[in-house]
Amino acid sequence: MCLKLFKWANFEKGHSGIKIHTQLDLRGNIPSFFLITKAKVHDVNLLDVLEFEKGAYYIMDRGYYDFERLYQIHKQNSFFIIRAKKSISAIRVCSRKVDKSIGLRCDQIIKLKHFYSRKYYPNKLRRIKYYDDATNRHYVYLTNNFALDAITIADLYKQRWQIELFFKWIKQHLHINTFWGTSKNAVKIQICIAISTFLLVAIMKKKLNIKRNLYEILQILSVSQFEKTPINTLLSEFDLQTFEDQAQKRLFSLDF
Q: Do residues 202 and 28 make contact, with C-beta atoms less than 8 angstroms apart?
């Protein structure tokens, strides 16, 4: 973002930036919480404002690696799965057998060794190492859940990619990459409108059991704003291919 236009979001020399801290509910791939801040605000600060649901699983990347905050999740009887850092200092308490044919390399119970880490997180942790054929990389996860199978923990962490797909979809289809206003309030309003639009379309798709994808639904609604046809009928009968062909012909005619 341009510093001259967005002075309130000063990030670094010559640039401004904002950050959307988002919690995605994997049961429906929809955002359940988001917080808009300056880009300088670290990701881990989101954990200070979240209300943790008992029995829920919180899947996070290394940006949320903070044992004091992770212990707060544990004390709320919730579970977390997070990528471990290479610098972690721990003592292995015991190891469980793993099936290496499915990518698992180890499943250990550990206790933190570093003074401050052990102070902030005095309980035991579970350390799982997994090899992913698709990326040809090893991943090490930490969790406070000792009941789930190790492969289930690895599979759950893979679902974290859904947050990246969510933001990609928002940027591509709701045009959030261009801001209509430059004030702090204008930027927040536009982001909230984009996320609200996503939620409304996702809820409508689920409630009406619509077979089309979210992009197709948005395209149809964008050209049918004044239609009096019921939404479920409109979405089931609309010929999107014919519409796109006609749009391409009109575009070609204008270019010619």
A: yes
